[in-house]
Design goal:
Blueprint: H1 12-17, H2 23-41, E1 43-44, H3 46-50, H4 52-61, E2 68-71, H5 78-83, H6 121-134, E3 141-146, H7 153-162, E4 170-175, H8 185-196, H9 199-212, H10 217-227, H11 229-236, H12 241-244, E5 248-254, H13 258-270, E6 275-280, H14 288-292, E7 299-300, H15 318-332, E8 336-340, H16 350-355, E9 360-362, H17 367-379, E10 383-389, H18 390-393, H19 397-405, E11 412-416, H20 433-437, E12 444-446, H21 451-460, E13 465-468, E14 488-491, E15 497-502, H22 505-514, E16 519-524, E17 526-528, H23 532-539, E18 543-551, H24 556-566, E19 572-578, H25 588-594, H26 599-607
Parallel strand pairs: 2-3, 3-4, 4-6, 5-6, 8-9, 8-10, 10-11, 11-13, 12-13, 15-16, 15-18, 18-19
Antiparallel strand pairs: 1-7, 12-17, 14-16
This protein binds thiamine diphosphate (TPP).
Thiamine diphosphate binds next to loops.
C-alpha cells in the first residue's frame, strides 16, 4: 500500500521528524493501513484504531528502544509495529512466519517483553525499569495499560510495588471504557468518576506546566508545589487511588490530541516520582463500524472493509452450545450460575448474561479470582460454571488446586479454546490444561468431540470437573453416535492395532481408520482419571498409538502409556503430541499436520509408511 508519510517512517526517529501539522495525515494513513490489513488478515482492530495518536505521541516523546514502551496484552501494538520498522512486513500480520499479533522481543528490539495475556505490563515494565537503573543504563520504561487490563489483580500488585519508591517509571492508562465488552466492576465506575470530575487535576496540570516554563524559579516552585500537594489536594479535591499508590496522577487527557499527550509525557518524565497518565480514547476511532460496535471489532476474522461485518451473524459452535445449555440448566435450577473473566461473548454467555442477570458474573480480567469466587459460590450451595479459555485458566492453577479441589467443591470449569488455536500463536494455545489439571487429585476431565456430548456432560456432571472443548464447530458425528457415561468408547474393527485419542482428534482417527485395514479407535470420553477397564482393553493390542492435541510432557498420553507399561502389557506404544515447544501462529490444520495429528499422518504412521 502506498502512503505518502507512513512509507517514509523507518523508525521512531522519523516519527519525531514529522511536522506537527502533518500528524493528522500520518494518523489517517495509519488508520487506513490498519483497516485494510486487518480486514484481510484478521486480528485486533478496534483497540488498535483507538491508540493511533497515543502511539505516535509516545514515539515522539520517548526514544524506543532506549525507553522501553510495553503495551499490556499487546493486542493494540500494531501502530507501534508500523512505526518501528515493520511497516513493510505488516501484510504478514498473524500469518505463519509473519509478524506476530502481539509484542515479540525476537521480532524487534522495540518489543521489550513478550505479551498476550493481560494485566502484567506494569510488573514487567517496572522490572525493566529497575534493571536499567541497576545497570546504569539511560532511559525509562512506560507501561501502556487498558482500563480492562486494570481489572486484573496482578496490576495492583505491581502498582503497590512500583509506587513505593522514587523513579520516573511511567504508566499510561488507556481508558476507553471498554474491555472486550463494556468494562465492568467498581473500577469502571471509579474511572468514570475521575473522568467526569477532572477539574482539580486539570488545574494542577496547567499550573505545573506553566510553572515549568518559568526559567530558574519555575522548577523550584514546582518542586515545592509537589511537596505541599497533599494539603492542596485535600483542600480542593479528594486524592485518587493512583495517588494513594504513590503515583503522580496526570490527566485525564484527550488521547487523540498528540500535542496534549506530548506535554504530559514531558512533565511525567521530568519528575523523580512514578507517574500515571490517564488517557481517554475511543475504541474503534475513525472507522464508523468499529466505533459503533467496538465489541464486535475487538478481534475479527477477515471481512469486507467497505461493507463492514455482519455483527448479528451467529454460527453454531462449541461456545454457543455451551451457552445455550447453561441457559437451559439455569431455567430449571435456580442455583445455576455462570462466571466469566471478561469473555462474555467469546464464551457464548451473552444470552445467559441477558436472561439470568443476577446469576451471571463478569468479574473482569481476573481468572484467579473467578475460580475462587466460583468455589465460594459452590461452597455455599450454588452450582457455578466458570467458562474460560484454556490458556487464561493457566492464571488460576493454584486457585483450582487450593480453593476448589482440596475441599472438592462442586464447580464446573468449562474450558473453551482447548487445543491449538491458530493465529494468536504461542501465548493463546490451549495445549496445557489437560496436563496441569490432571495433576490435581479428584479432578475429573472430559473432552467432548461432539455437541451432544458437551450438552450431556454439562447436564449430568455435578461434582468438581473440567469439560474442555475447542474453538469452532464440531466435526460431523458418526451416524449412530450418542453420548454415553462410559469413560471411553471403542469404535471396533478387527486387528491388533489401536488408535487412542480424545476431543476433536477423534474425527481424524475415525477418518484414518476408514482408510486403514483393521484398526480400532478408542475414544477417551473422560481423559482423567484413566480407567482400569481401559488398560485391560489396550493390553490386548500389539500396537497402541496415542494422539494428543496437547503438550506431551505430563499429558494424558504419557500417563496412559505409563499405566500400560506398569500393568506389564507387552504392546508397543507410541505417542504423538505437542513436543517440547511453544506452538507458533499458524492455521490449526497446518499445526495438526506439523505435529502429525491429522488424519493423513495417522494413516502414514499406523500403516507403517512413516515412522516420524
Ligand atoms: C489473562 C487474560 N484474560 C483474557 C484475555 C483476553 N483479552 C484480550 S484483550 C482483552 C480486553 C482488554 O481490555 P483493555 O485492557 O481495556 O484494552 P482495549 O482492548 O480496550 O484497548 C481481553 C479480556 C487476555 N488477553 N488475557
Amino acid at each position: 500500500m502506498e502512503y505518502q508519510l507512513l512509507n517514509q517512517i523507518r523508525g521512531p526517529e522519523d516519527v519525531k521528524r514529522v511536522p506537527a501539522e502533518q500528524l493528522p495525515q500520518l494518523c489517517a494513513e495509519i488508520r487506513d493501513c490498519l483497516i485494510q490489513t486487518v480486514s484481510k488478515t484478521g486480528g485486533h482492530l478496534a483497540s488498535n484504531l483507538g491508540v493511533v495518536e497515543l502511539t505516535v505521541a509516545l514515539h515522539r516523546s520517548f526514544s524506543s528502544p532506549q525507553d522501553a514502551i510495553l503495551f499490556d496484552v499487546g493486542h493494540q501494538c500494531y501502530t507501534h509495529k508500523l512505526l518501528t520498522g515493520r511497516a513493510d512486513r505488516f501484510s504478514t500480520l498473524r500469518q505463519e512466519g509473519g509478524l506476530s499479533g502481539f509484542m515479540r522481543p525476537d521480532e524487534s528490539e522495540h518489543d521489550p517483553f513478550i505479551t498476550g495475556h493481560s494485566s502484567n505490563a506494569i510488573s514487567a515494565a517496572y522490572g525493566i525499569y529497575k534493571a536499567k537503573t541497576l545497570r546504569g543504563e539511560a532511559g525509562t520504561a512506560v507501561a501502556v495499560v487498558g482500563d480492562g487490563a486494570l481489572t486484573g489483580g496482578m496490576a495492583y500488585e505491581a502498582l503497590n510495588n512500583a509506587g513505593s519508591g522514587k523513579s520516573n517509571f511511567i504508566i499510561v492508562l488507556n481508558d476507553n471504557k471498554m474491555s472486550i465488552s463494556r468494562n465492568v466492576g467498581a473500577l469502571a465506575r471509579y474511572l468514570n468518576l475521575i473522568r467526569t470530575r477532572p477539574s482539580y487535576h486539570r488545574f494542577k496540570l496547567r499550573l505545573e506546566h506553566a510553572l515549568g516554563h518559568v526559567p530558574l524559579i519555575g522548577k523550584q516552585v514546582r518542586r515545592s508545589l509537589f511537596r505541599s500537594k497533599t494539603m492542596l489536594k485535600n483542600a480542593i479535591y479528594h486524592s485518587n487511588i493512583f495517588e494513594g499508590f504513590g503515583f503522580n496522577y496526570l490527566g485525564p487527557v484527550d488521547g487523540h490530541n498528540i500535542e496534549k499527550l506530548e506535554n504530559l509525557f514531558e512533565i511525567a518524565r521530568e519528575q523523580n516520582r512514578p507517574a500515571l497518565i490517564h488517557v481517554l480514547t475511543v475504541k474503534g476511532k475513525g472507522y464508523s463500524f468499529a466505533e459503533n460496535s467496538p465489541k464486535h471489532y475487538h478481534g475479527v476474522s477477515p471481512f469486507d472493509a467497505e461493507e463492514g461485518m455482519d455483527v448479528d451473524a451467529t454460527k453454531e459452535s462449541f461456545s454457543s452450545v455451551a451457552g445455550e445449555t447453561l441457559c437451559e440448566l439455569a431455567k430449571d435450577d435456580p442455583t445455576v450460575c455462570a462466571v466469566t473473566a471478561a469473555m462474555t461473548s467469546g464464551t457464548g454467555l451473552s444470552d445467559f448474561a441477558a436472561t439470568y442477570k443476577p446469576r451471571f458474573f463478569d468479574v473482569g480480567i481476573a481468572e484467579a479470582h473467578a475460580v475462587t469466587f466460583s468455589a465460594g459460590l459452590a461452597s455455599a450451595g450454588m452450582r457455578p460454571y466458570f467458562v474460560v479459555y484454556s490458556s487464561f485458566l493457566q492464571r488460576g492453577y493454584d486457585q483450582v488446586l487450593h480453593d476448589a479441589a482440596i475441599a472438592h467443591y462442586p464447580l464446573t470449569l468449562c474450558i473453551d479454546r482447548a487445543g491449538i488455536v491458530g493465529d494468536d500463536g504461542e501465548t493463546h494455545q490451549g495445549v496445557f490444561d489437560a496436563a496441569f489439571l490432571s495433576t490435581i487429585p479428584g479432578m475429573e476431565i472430559y473432552s467432548p468431540t461432539y455437541y451432544d456430548e458437551l450438552r450431556h456432560l454439562l447436564r449430568t456432571k455435578k461434582t468438581l470437573c473440567a469439560i474442555r472443548y475447542p474453538r469452532g464447530a464440531q466435526p460431523t458425528p458418526p451416524a449412530d453416535f450418542a453420548p454415553c457415561d462410559d469413560a471411553f468408547t471403542c469404535f471396533e474393527r478387527e486387528g491388533k492395532k489401536a488408535i487412542v485419542t480424545y476431543g476433536r482428534l477423534v474425527a481424524n482417527a475415525l477418518d484414518a481408520a476408514r482408510r486403514l485395514p483393521d484398526v480400532t479407535v478408542v475414544k477417551l470420553n473422560r481423559i482423567h482419571p484413566l480407567d482400569e477397564a481401559l488398560i485391560a482393553l489396550l493390553r490386548d493390542f500389539s500396537d497402541v498409538y496415542f494422539f494428543e492435541e496437547g503438550i506431551r510432557s505430563g499429558g494424558i498420553a504419557e500417563q496412559l502409556a505409563a499405566l500400560l507399561y506398569a500393568s506389564g502389557a507387552g504392546c508397543r506404544s507410541r505417542i504423538y503430541a505437542i513436543p517440547d515447544v511453544f506452538v507458533p501462529a499458524m492455521p490449526v490444520e497446518r499445526a495438526l499436520r506439523r505435529y502429525r495429528l491429522d488424519a493423513d499422518s495417522m494413516v502414514e504412521i499406523v500403516s507403517g509408511t512413516s515412522h516420524g
